[in-house]
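Q: My labmate handed me this sequence with no annotations at all. I'd like to see what the chain might look like in three dimensions before we decide whether it's worth expressing. Could you predict it?
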Amino acid sequence: MLGIYGLGGVGKTIIAKAVYNKIFDRFDRSCFLEDVREKSQINNGIIQLQETLLSKILQDPYLKVDSVPQGTELIMDRFCHTRLLLILDDVDKSNQIDKFLGSYDWFSSGSRIIITTRDKQVLTTLGKDRLVYEIKELDQREAYELFSLHAFQMNKPGEEYLEVAKQIIHYANGLPLALKSNRF
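A: Here is what I predict for the chain of 184 residues:
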């Protein structure tokens, strides 16, 4: 179990995707479930997420789940002998994790579960064998360099853009996704 937490826009999902892309082929099956917080809020959202997880892992696009408890049980039954890489992205409630993971000893030895969240408290339910990392905002120098690379394709802007670059960096407050945005 690995938890990654930090402010929205700090790059948790990008880090989780990079890790996923680098190691997914070391597992029997893998799944990246994005936007758990947002998708859970719609009607039957957890059921749809459970269906997505089960369909991807079992490679059955027609698999249907009738209820959350049934989905949780199917996950337990089907994944207990599978080395699985599972990413739960943007989780905001502990019970969302429980709907996918139930008892954490369900998964086969060698499985890896990575959870991204804005709220460190969500990760406290993962048990004592978890690793938790905080992703922090960029410092001024890092923010300046990232913005300059994306806005000007160089390490620093020309003199004519220096003041506006400083204002944007201050406004973005060290959040990488804001600094890379095409909206500036």
